[in-house]
Amino acid sequence: MNQANWTAVDDYFCQLLVPEDEALRAAVRDSDAASLPAHQVAPNQGKLLQLLAQICGARRILEIGTLGGYSTIWMARALPADGQLVSLEFNPQYAEVARRNIDRAGLSDKVDIRIGRAGDLLPLLASEGGAPFDLIFIDADKPNNPLYLDWALKLARPGTLIIGDNVVRNGAVVDPASDDANVQGVRRFSELMAANPRLSATALQTVGSKGWDGFSLARVMA
């Protein structure tokens, strides 16, 4: 099997089960036109995020790493009328593209994009004293994943689902001697989940149009 096969299988399931509408297609087009990196989730992965949000009855979602807002749209569509999604983005250009994409999708009333370093924004978010988040999607700079997990736990409740994206790194995650800061960030993130008695976690490797990677799932138990 190779990348062409993986992409063909993704295309088959996406065409059958995950039809994109114009707002989603336009979000990808506009992100490409603005030269954003093509790091958004695949359509079937976006639908998975949406289903997970619906399964856990999410009313408040936290996304760390907005990019062009593609995954944001998928998840925000799972929210009830009074639901809210807070998305943190370091790059102002990316955030502006995301805001346009989210506005076109008719979701501006549900999505709050905040610009800055997540490490600075997360303490501010915690100080606001809002309700805990029901789902937290971590998809930003991997070296800081351990920090993001720490704050996710502070902003969570029992039952909150924490999802970590891009945790396989083309298989490099198994190399303890890797000099790649992204790999080491993911490894430490995984080790912290394993060691935390508040979490019940797993991770899955995936192949598809986005290559060989995977995601972690952790449920806050207490």
Structural overview:
This protein has eight helices and seven strands. It has 222 residues and is an alpha/beta fold. It has one domain: Rossmann fold, CATH 3.40.50. Strands 3-2-1-4-5-7-6 form a seven-stranded mixed beta sheet, sandwiched between helices. Helix 5 links the parallel strand 2 and strand 3. The longest helix has 15 residues. The chain is globular and about 40 Å long. It starts with a helix and ends with a strand.
Task: Quickly give the structural class.
Answer: alpha/beta
In CATH, the topology is named Rossmann fold
Gyration radius from CA atoms, angstroms: 17 Å
Distance linking N and C termini: 42 Å
Spatial strand arrangement across the major sheet: 3-2-1-4-5-7-6
Number of domains: 1
CATH superfamily: Vaccinia Virus protein VP39
Unreliably modeled segments:
none
According to CATH, what is the class? Alpha Beta
Figure out the total of helices. Answer: 8
Helix and strand element order: HHHEHEHEHEHEHEE
- The helix fraction, in percent, is 40-55%
**Mind summarizing the main beta sheet?**
7 strands, mixed
- Name the average pLDDT: 97
Q: How large is the share of residues in beta strands?
A: 15-25%
The coarse overall form would be: globular
**In the CATH classification, which architecture applies?**
3-Layer(aba) Sandwich
Tell how many strands the DSSP assignment holds. Answer: 7
